[in-house]
Design goal:
The chain is of the alpha+beta class. It is 32% helix and 26% strand. The longest helix has 20 residues, at 295-314.
Length: 516
């Protein structure tokens, strides 16, 4: 080989070495890292992110606090929970619109609002949108606006969200549901016939394909029970018919990535508490604390979530999801309950758990998955570390709904912020803050107001979310005295007036859709 060829070869080797050293470079979008190899890399990328990322929803509740981990992350909300005092929440002025029937309707309204379009345009950059819920219309509006949606397609999410499909995906992954059969139940006789063939008895739980917080879950032990819900059940081509078990609810969020499925902590579920919700079986909060479950149950749930997430990847889904589990109190068997192919109400807990502060919130791995940046992370190492008890601290949240069977208009509502409980159990406003970490003890709580002055208050309306240190349930999984005092105290801070005849015509019906 000639001397010149040797020199050229040596120069090329030097260039390759220099390229490897220069992993970080500037582009039109700011700081870029070629490959994310660990949590430190991920945190640096998010800390120096220059691409505008938005969470567009009714409120910022589900991803509260993520703006402090991700630069240029903003919330576009319909409800002004903070009275204009949150620096990263943008709420446009109210304009005439058709009556909302879903969260998707709210998001589509926001995306077509001139003030929102102007706000996103003024901030510049290639905008990214994240949502709690969205549909194909949302995707089309985003496409027209040049906004990229960082979630799997709505059509895929809809398919996976179907409770029947969840059972089938779980079966493929070896993740069992409560003994069940999937069949039509157009009459009570047909329901019993299907249950008999499946060997699951006649004390049953029936679920339709979609719905949440107990709205489409029916407990059927007699023909009278069936007839009460016949219109909803008989209208479906297929329903999930389950053996009724005595169980505790639990939930676990995870994120399926190209390196495998990352699994968060197992949370208890506050379900069907009459002080919080009018819906039997309806979700109304969560707890996280080290002794909530035995290590055997926690390990089984983690394994189930890991396998389910890997199967979701095979189905074409990627990113953040949530699994509800049912734990049989008789034998501690763990069953798959439901899939939420998205962020959900538990996300505000998962992304503030101790592991998130030690490493990174789970949602940052979702953003990584859609960022277009190459990554190779050690999922096994992270899952093993997050499973340790020291990565679980003690927090609770409850969603306070209006439980009375009436409709009125709110004249006064408690502001979002930090509240304090006195020794007699009374509750009062202490100071403004939008950080839950500002809560100093179990005598304080953060309240995020949803229903405010001028809003209708109706049965099932979300009044707000209360977040506190420590537990809100006792060992029998009933609300403890402290939680009861908090709920009563917050509700007492609401005042209302009756409707006029004109207002009554526009008032929402009881059981209107939830926004969380």
């Amino acid at each position: 080989m000639s001397k010149k060829k040797k020199e050229r070869k040596k120069d090329k080797k030097k260039e390759k070495k220099r390229d490897k050293r220069q992993k970080h470079s500037k582009s039109s979008e700011g700081y870029i890292m070629e490959t994310i190899r660990n949590v430190a890399d991920l945190r640096v990328v998010m800390h120096r992110n220059e691409r505008p990322i938005y969470f567009i929803s009714a409120t910022n509740f589900n991803l509260i606090g993520i703006d402090e981990w991700v630069r240029n992350f903003k919330f576009v909300s319909y409800i002004d929970c903070f009275d204009g005092r949150h620096p990263n929440v943008f709420v446009p002025s109210e304009i005439p619109h058709a009556e909302f029937e879903s969260i998707e309707d709210i998001n589509n309204y926001l995306l077509q609002h001139k003030e929102v379009i102007d706000y996103i345009t003024k901030r510049g950059g290639r905008a990214v949108a994240t949502f709690l819920m969205f549909d194909e219309s949302t995707e089309e509006i985003c496409k027209e606006l040049g906004i990229e949606v960082w979630f799997p397609k709505a059509k895929l999410r809809q398919r996976c969200d179907n409770k029947m499909e969840t059972v089938r995906i779980g079966n493929k992954a070896g993740v069992p549901s409560v003994p069940n059969t999937l069949a039509p139940a157009r009459t009570y006789e047909e329901l019993l016939s299907s249950a008999k063939k499946a060997g699951i008895g006649n004390d049953l739980v029936v679920q339709t394909a979609f719905g949440d917080s107990g709205h489409t879950t029916f407990f059927i032990a007699s023909e009278e029970d069936y007839n009460r819900h016949a219109a909803e059940i008989s209208a479906e081509d297929e329903v999930k018919i389950m053996k009724r078990i005595k169980c505790r609810g639990a939930t676990m969020e995870a994120c399926t990535t190209g390196s495998g499925t990352l699994v968060g902590p197992l949370l208890t579920e506050v379900v069907g508490q009459p002080a919080l919700t009018p819906y039997k079986g309806g979700w109304c909060g969560n707890e996280i604390f080290p002794g909530a479950f035995s290590e055997k149950i926690r390990a089984k749930a983690r394994d189930m979530a890991y396998r389910f997430g890997n199967q979701l990847r095979e189905e074409g889904y990627r990113g953040y999801f949530d699994l509800d589990f049912l734990i049989d109190v008789e034998d501690n068997e763990v069953y798959l309950g439901e899939l939420n192919p998205r962020i959900c109400g538990a996300s505000s807990m998962t992304n503030h758990a101790a592991f998130a502060y030690a490493d990174a919130p789970l949602f940052l791995f979702h953003l990584m998955e859609f960022s277009g940046i190459d990554y190779k992370i050690d999922v096994e190492e992270l899952n093993n570390r997050w499973a340790r008890k020291e990565f679980i601290d003690s927090w609770s949240q409850v969603v306070i709904k209006s439980t009375e069977d009436l409709v009125d208009i709110v004249t006064h509502a408690p502001s979002s912020g930090i509240y304090r409980m006195a020794s007699d159990g009374s509750v009062s406003y202490d100071r403004f803050d939008y950080h839950r970490q500002a809560i100093e003890s179990e005598q304080e709580a953060f309240f995020l107001r949803i229903t405010g002055p001028g809003d209708y208050r109706y049965e099932g309306a979300d009044l707000g979310i209360l977040i506190t240190r420590g537990r809100v349930m006792d060992d029998e999984f009933e609300l403890n005295e402290r939680a009861s005092n908090w709920i009563k105290g917050i509700k007492r801070l609401y005042a209302s007036k009756p409707l006029t005849e004109i207002q009554r015509e526009d008032a929402p019906e009881a059981g209107s859709f939830k926004i969380l």
